[in-house]
Specification:
41% of the residues lie in helices and 24% in strands. The protein is an alpha+beta fold. It has one domain: Gcn5-related N-acetyltransferase (GNAT) (Aminopeptidase, 3-Layer(aba) Sandwich). The radius of gyration is 15 Å and the shape is globular.
Length: 180
C-alpha cells in the first residue's frame, strides 16, 4: 500500500469509492447518488488537497480529500449547491455549511476520508491522515475539521485516536476538529 497525491485520472475511482462507502441509498436513489458526489466528493477533487491510498496493483482503495480554506470552500461549494437544488431537490435543505463555518477561524481546513472495506484497519487510515496533516502543517494551516455521523462509532474512535476533539454535536452527529 502507498499514499500518492490525487491526479485527475483517478476521479472516477474516487467517485466510485465515495458512492460505495456512503449510504446504501446511493445505489438506488439517483438524487442521493448525485447529492453524495456533489457534497462530499467533486468539490474537493476540483478545489482541494487530496491523497489516495493505492494497493500494490495500482488500484485506488481509499482517499482523504481536503479543502484547506473554509471561506474559499464555502464559495467553491455554491455551484455544487446549485446543482443539488436543481437535480437533487430532496437534499436542497442540506446545502448549508453553517455548522462548520462557526469553527472556520481556528479550523480552516475541512476533510473527508473514505476507505474501502477490506482496507480499513492496519494503519491505512492513519497513513492517509498523516499525509494530509503533514501537508497542512507545511502550508501553515491552523487546524482541520470534519463531520461524523453519531452512529459511526468506528470513525469516532479513529478521529479521537488521531487527536480530533468534538467541537459540537447534535442529534445526527458531531463536528470534530484538530489544531495543527
Amino acid at each position: 500500500m502507498k499514499i500518492i497525491n490525487y491526479e485527475e485520472k483517478y476521479r472516477r475511482d474516487v467517485q466510485t469509492i465515495c458512492i460505495e462507502t456512503g449510504s446504501k441509498d446511493n445505489l438506488v436513489n439517483p438524487e442521493h447518488y448525485n447529492f453524495t458526489l456533489w457534497m462530499y466528493c467533486d468539490p474537493y477533487l476540483d478545489h482541494g488537497k487530496n491523497f489516495l491510498l493505492m494497493d500494490d496493483a495500482g488500484k485506488v482503495q481509499g482517499y482523504v480529500l481536503c479543502a484547506e480554506d473554509a471561506g474559499m470552500f464555502e464559495k467553491d461549494m455554491q455551484p455544487y449547491f446549485q446543482k443539488i437544488k436543481e437535480k437533487a431537490p430532496s437534499f436542497a435543505g442540506r446545502c448549508d455549511l453553517r455548522e462548520y463555518m462557526q469553527f472556520a477561524k481556528d479550523y480552516p481546513a475541512h476533510l473527508h476520508i473514505d476507505i474501502r472495506e477490506g482496507y480499513t484497519g492496519g494503519g491505512n487510515g492513519t497513513a492517509l491522515m498523516h499525509a494530509l496533516l503533514d501537508a497542512l502543517q507545511k502550508d501553515h494551516v491552523k487546524g482541520v475539521m470534519l463531520g461524523v455521523d453519531k452512529r459511526n462509532l468506528r470513525a469516532l474512535g479513529f478521529y479521537k485516536k488521531m487527536g480530533f476533539q468534538v467541537l459540537s454535536s447534535d442529534q445526527y452527529g458531531s463536528v470534530m476538529g484538530r489544531k495543527l
